[in-house]
Amino acid sequence: MDISLTEFKATVLNHLLDFLWRQWSALGVAGRSAPEERRVIDPEPLLLLSLTVCRYDARLFDEILDWLTVNGAFMNVQRLKSLERLFDFQCKAQLSAVSELLGKKSSYALKWKNLSAFHTLETTEPLFYMKDGKPLPLSSDYAQEFKIHGLLRGPLKLRGYSQPFPTHGIPSLLLRLRALLGVNARCELLCLLGSAEEIHPSDIARQTGYFPRTTQNALVEMARSGVVEMRSSNREKMYWLHPGLLDNLLRPDGKSIAWINWSPLFRALEMLWLGLIDPKRQNLDPLLLASEFRRLTIDMRPLLGEAGWAMHLRSESAYRGEVYGDVFVQDMTALLERLNHG
């Protein structure tokens, strides 16, 4: 490869952390960079990816915890659990520890308590690592909410700088709809309806993680309001927003909002990061490393396809031997740059 695996890991981590800082900053985290501006942020898959990647940025991890103490009432905990299981996110112990914390400290503790018994590691390990992969130095004074789930970290001292999510702008649209309508599937449905001329219930279910019957039943009821309209074609029903009624909220610029199917995309990115830091891949020769990258691409491709991003990857079967190592690095770098710049 033109760059070493160490250099590539650093590049990927920097891209991922820059992206996560921007997304969370747009939702009210005290941030270090310009926030997301144009795309609707989906907080549940965002949290799942963050709980894995932000083990390499303790400050962002704790700023997210701080944000959850302010805004956690608007997280859909049941959907969070469902998405973790559906896509097999690898943050089970972190999610349980965060739920343990919120189940004690927040005014909406009950909704988080069921997740606190979700998962515990068999052996303890550090929660945080430095960017070079070494564990962050620890004292012997551990945060108990994390220790009981097998994760060792120092005492938790939240700064209290996070703000309620913004009451304007596209990035916080889903959370604003939850504040208006309650934490339920109709909020995601309205986001999807605002992103397309018309849409089929199965597409909404696929892009939100809800059961198809849940989305179908909700759309049937919403169509009776006059805000959502429906047509039947070839025994299929298509739904769309009645023009003008909710345009100021869902289409403020007069055009469809940008909704991305974040859950499979974020699971693919988690898979990328965990694949790169896998101890078994650290000291391979270029040919074997290229072979491992090929396997990683094969695993990621269906998720990227579901998110609508697979077209940005070149075919792994078209490049022989160690040549694919450079192709993989180039394709993943381009994908991360597109993620960061929309």
Write the layout of secondary structure elements.
Blueprint: H1 5-26, H2 43-53, H3 58-71, H4 77-87, H5 92-105, H6 110-116, E1 125-126, H7 144-147, E2 151-152, H8 173-181, H9 185-195, H10 201-208, H11 212-223, E3 228-233, E4 236-241, H12 247-250, H13 262-277, H14 286-307, H15 323-341
Parallel strand pairs: 1-2
Antiparallel strand pairs: 3-4
Helix pairs in contact: 1-13, 1-15, 2-4, 2-13, 5-6, 8-9, 10-11, 13-14, 14-15
A few lines on this structure:
The protein has 342 residues and is mainly alpha-helical.
Could you explain how this protein is built, in words?
This protein has helices at 5-26, 43-53, 58-71, 77-87, 92-105, 110-116, 144-147, 173-181, 185-195, 201-208, 212-223, 247-250, 262-277, 286-307, 323-341, and strands spanning 125-126, 151-152, 228-233, 236-241. It is mainly alpha-helical and 342 residues long. Strands 1-2 form a two-stranded parallel sheet. The protein has a two-stranded antiparallel ribbon with strand order 3-4. Strand 3 and strand 4 form a beta hairpin. Helix 5 (92-105) runs antiparallel to helix 6 (110-116). The longest helix has 22 residues, at 5-26. The protein is globular. The model has no long low-confidence stretch (mean pLDDT 91).
